[in-house]
Amino acid sequence: MSPSENPADVLGNIGFMARSPLYETEKPHVFIPAPGSGTLPVGNVELEHKDVLIHDVRKFNARLSVNGFQVAKHESKHLGLKTESDAALYKGETEKFLQSIFPDADRIVTWDLRRRKNIDRSAVVASANGEVQIDAPAQAAHVDTSFNHGAQLLERYLPPELQAEYLKPGSGYRFQVINTWRTLNPVLEDCPLALCDFASMETGDIQETTLTYPDKKGEIYHVYHNPNQRWYWYPMQTPSDLFVFLNYDSESGSDAKYCAHTSFRNPLAGPDTQLRESVETRSIVITRLQE
Questions:
Q1: What protein family does this chain belong to (predicted)?
Q2: Cα 38 vs. chain centroid, distance in angstroms?
């Protein structure tokens, strides 16, 4: 790890999956309990923490198709986000914004919104009375869905009428799962997001992990540490500084296939820094393939 001349580049501590012979005979798995259950996730995933140089993304021309993420300026009118009605407005706004990023998209469906606050995971409570659920930040480098599970996401979250139109055999469409992420703090210092340049990732850096919830199953990639990886963050990020990043692409070809990401402790944050609050969305972007 070479030193940096940019004072906004920081040495951050990131959680990675530890390489273990256990995974040669047993697939990594985690059970995620329901919010408010008072219990923590359990499984066979072993983590290790590494100090990693995390670069100032403002000095990097990140592109979604090459690096798996990019930065955009976007002012939201719907950052109250206390109720599911507020969330619906934000999702609609996100769909319109993503249309500007993907002008050739036929349809964009934003199905998921996550509010997070830097609280202990055991303190997370279940939402009630139509309030938006508040979760804790992720503590390990990951990709939200594996390639194999991506197709299941389409079948789970696309409305039936869109499945009939776009998922039929030979329909000729590309499907991408795109996240947006922004802070809700006026200026974010505590527990910012770090993203890894896909161009610096190697095939052996990821590991499929099964997630089991009370009502469903999923599969993500956990990330192994590799000193060749290049990580980025946005110093003093504001709500108008939006991360847009990729989690799945059915037809990536030579393009980026995903973007590994996680929160990390910011060594530049002061002792009285406001606890991080953030909102992220996940959307399905549908684009007709070129003939």
A1: Belongs to the asaB hydroxylase/desaturase family.
A2: 24
Q: Where in the sequence is the domain holding 281, given as residue range(s)?
A: 10-288
Is the separation of the CB atoms in 177 and 145 below 8 Å? yes
The pair of three-digit structure tokens given for residue 230, joined into one six-digit string: 């290049």
For residues 45 and 219, give the distance between their C-alpha atoms in angstroms, rounded to a whole number.
13
What CATH number does residue 140 fall under? 2.60.120
**What is the C-alpha to C-alpha distance for residues 267 and 282, in angstroms, rounded to an integer?**
29
Helix, strand or coil for residue 18?
coil
Task: Please tell me the total count of domains within the chain.
Answer: 1
- Pure H helices in the chain: 64-67, 84-101, 147-157, 160-166
The beta strand positions in 80-226, using DSSP E, are 105-117, 134-135, 142-143, 173-183, 193-196, 206-212, 217-223
Q: Could you tell me the pTM of the whole model? A: 0.94
